[in-house]
Amino acid sequence: MIFSGDTVIKLAVEQGLSDIRSNPWLIDNIMGHFKDPALSTYGQKEIDRCKEWFLNNKIEILLRYRLDKDEFPCVTIALNSSSEMEDMKHLADTSTESEILLPSDINKPISYIVKPFVPTEIDDSTGFVGIPESIKASRLIRQGMILADVTNGNGYEIKDIAENGVFIEPELNVTASKMAVVPRFQFYEAKVEHSFFRETYTIGCHVHGDPSTLLWLHAIVSYCLLRYKESLLEARGFSQTSISSSDVAPN
């Protein structure tokens, strides 16, 4: 899996803005420092101004360097740098993580361990099933694999292995005319390797007109990133995040 951090950040900001539009009272929480009694009624007026501006303006979330014309207000996201972390590297990038893949999902059917054959003998009392000597399959077979009836798909767990056949559970009344040996589990387990990168992103808040709106937008975007740090950022590849803000500058 290749990590696409800018897309994850975009998702977090979009989700946050959507939640705030559905719950405008969140702005009272974001701008809560304005409720200081020392600010008198001015503080609440500033909150109300922010809420009115936010609800009456569409805020685009853009990946930077797009070629068409930007519309303000907007938020831009850009990857600045990405470098592999030397202190987190290990041989072959091995990890303990694995992923289960179904044959139907990857268009790769499960292969036979032993291709279909006609049993030389089936002893129901002992569970012995003979395998033709010409196949020379005993070295490929392991306990726990499945002896499958090719005609009807029934499977029987292999309990033991003999030089010229295998043993399954006795007294099962197996009468198959053609059988095969397949893996016990009908899926693939892929080992996942890990590499860790230190990446920096620039998230730009852009407005026109009153500079106050820029400070409001900055506070709202910061809130979105912090609110969804665990459920969206860390859950989708960011192991640790930190936020810092630069100075205000004209575009």
Helix-strand layout with pairing:
Blueprint: H1 5-22, H2 25-30, H3 40-55, E1 60-63, E2 74-84, E3 98-101, H4 103-106, E4 114-117, E5 122-123, E6 128-130, E7 146-149, E8 155-157, E9 160-162, E10 165-167, E11 179-182, E12 188-191, E13 197-206, H5 211-227, H6 229-233
Parallel strand pairs: 1-2
Antiparallel strand pairs: 2-13, 3-12, 4-11, 5-6, 6-10, 7-8, 7-11, 9-10
Helix pairs in contact: 1-5
Throw out a few tags for this protein:
single chain; 6 helices
Describe this structure in words.
By secondary structure, the chain is an alpha+beta fold. It is built from six helices and 13 strands. The protein has a four-stranded antiparallel sheet with strand order 4-11-7-8, with no helix packed on it. The chain has a four-stranded antiparallel sheet with strand order 5-6-10-9, with no helix packed on it. α1 (5-22) crosses α5. The radius of gyration is 32 Å and the shape is elongated. The mean pLDDT is 87.
Short description:
By secondary structure, this protein is an alpha+beta fold.
